[in-house]
Specification:
Layout: H1 21-27, H2 30-49, H3 59-75, H4 82-111, H5 126-142, H6 151-162, H7 169-172, H8 175-187
Helix pairs in contact: 2-3, 2-6, 3-6, 4-5
Length: 189
């Protein structure tokens, strides 16, 4: 995979050089991640309820282990494209930088370095909008990621791994105690 001759586009709005659909594919793994967490939680719940585990604090290391396994299984394969993404970002920064320098020099020469001709309109000129568009495109190149996993995917996968562990907290904090704490905070007593 890493030897594929990819034509990555540094200015692509997905910030992945055009590999953004890979993130969508990995989103499909979130139910599997949730299922793995649910199985682990069921095993831990059985161990806690039968008291084969001394403390319910064992949940936290297992939660970390599930997150590490999920990262290894579902995020690390995306690192295959890291060197190509980084190379495309570096090359794109150079290309867009040279183009931006040339454009801004011509823009300044036209609009700021000399007196405007009589009747020249500033409002509605396409040059200013083009400068804003160039700035946006240059920002897209600079924000290109080195992995095709964005914050949305990482959040979805983390929630799918962690949320199933929430019921295990009831072993440590019984429902009555939680309700009492909630009501005391709500009423202010």
């Amino acid at each position: 995979m890493s030897r594929l001759n990819l034509r990555l586009i540094p200015g692509h709005p997905d910030h992945d050089g055009g590999l953004g659909p890979l993130e969508g594919v990995h989103e499909r793994f979130t139910p599997f991640i949730a299922a793995l967490s649910i199985l682990q939680c069921a095993s831990l719940a059985e161990s806690i309820s039968t008291q084969t585990v001394v403390s319910s604090a064992i949940v936290y290391p297992w939660m970390a282990m599930v997150l590490l396994v999920d990262v290894a299984l579902f995020i690390c394969p995306l690192l295959v494209f890291t060197d190509k993404l980084w190379a495309a970002r570096t090359a794109g920064s150079g290309q867009y930088g040279r183009f931006a320098a040339r454009y801004v020099s011509e823009f300044e020469a036209k609009w700021t370095d000399r007196a405007l001709p009589e009747g020249a309109l500033l409002l509605g000129t396409p040059d200013i909008q083009s400068l804003a568009d160039l700035s946006s495109a240059f920002r897209d190149v600079k924000e290109m990621r080195w992995i095709t996993a964005g914050p949305r995917l990482l959040t979805m996968m983390a929630l799918a791994a962690i949320v199933p562990f929430a019921p295990l907290l009831l072993f440590q904090y019984p429902v009555g105690e939680l309700a009492e704490k909630f009501l005391s905070k709500l009423i202010g007593l």
